[in-house]
């Protein structure tokens, strides 16, 4: 009887021990303010090339048109001229992305409750995660002379994150001469 009572006591003690693992996420670390960029080709010398043309499809999204304008501006700053006929270089931008939804806590509207309160109703924030590709090709041979990519979260509050994309393009174009 003593053994049975002792066994019951030991089982009760083990059963009452509760181990909780709490996992917290810091959203500021999970939402980078910069794309991971990569220069796929070696830095090239464009000093012998003077003209370029931006390739944009007629049905291109507004995001692609916007990226091409940034790309065009950077090339103009590097001393190249944009022409419509007989360019030496062809340039273009491509976006490959997927849509995602991130759940965030909302403001409950109650007195004394904050947006991070456990009583706040969650809401979905849409976004795009993907890769931006910038290309420079030789107009005569169609050989890719330079390619840079940026990977990460492409949108902020449902629109293209222009600050992040400009920073990424600045870093990538720094290799051009």
UniProtKB/TrEMBL annotation:
Annotated Gene3D superfamilies: 3.30.160.670
Keywords: Signal
DUF4136 domain residues: 44-172
Domain of life: Bacteria
Signal peptide: 1-15
The name this protein goes by in its record: DUF4136 domain-containing protein
């Amino acid at each position: 009887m003593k053994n049975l009572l002792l066994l019951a006591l030991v089982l009760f003690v083990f059963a009452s021990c509760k181990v909780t693992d709490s996992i917290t996420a810091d959203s500021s670390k999970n939402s980078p303010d910069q794309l991971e960029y990569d220069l796929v080709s070696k830095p090239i010398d464009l000093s012998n090339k003077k003209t370029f043309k931006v390739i944009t499809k007629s049905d291109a999204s507004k995001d692609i048109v916007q990226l091409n304008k940034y790309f065009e501006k950077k090339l103009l700053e590097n001393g190249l001229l944009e022409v419509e006929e007989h360019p030496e270089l062809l340039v273009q931008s491509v976006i490959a992305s997927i849509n995602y939804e991130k759940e965030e806590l909302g403001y409950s509207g109650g007195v004394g409750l904050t947006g991070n309160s456990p009583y706040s109703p969650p809401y979905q924030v849409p976004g795009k995660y993907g890769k931006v590709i910038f290309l420079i090709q030789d107009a005569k041979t169609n050989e890719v002379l330079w390619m840079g990519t940026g990977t990460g979260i492409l949108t902020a509050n449902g629109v293209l994150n222009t600050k992040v994309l400009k920073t990424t393009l600045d870093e990538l174009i720094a290799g051009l001469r």
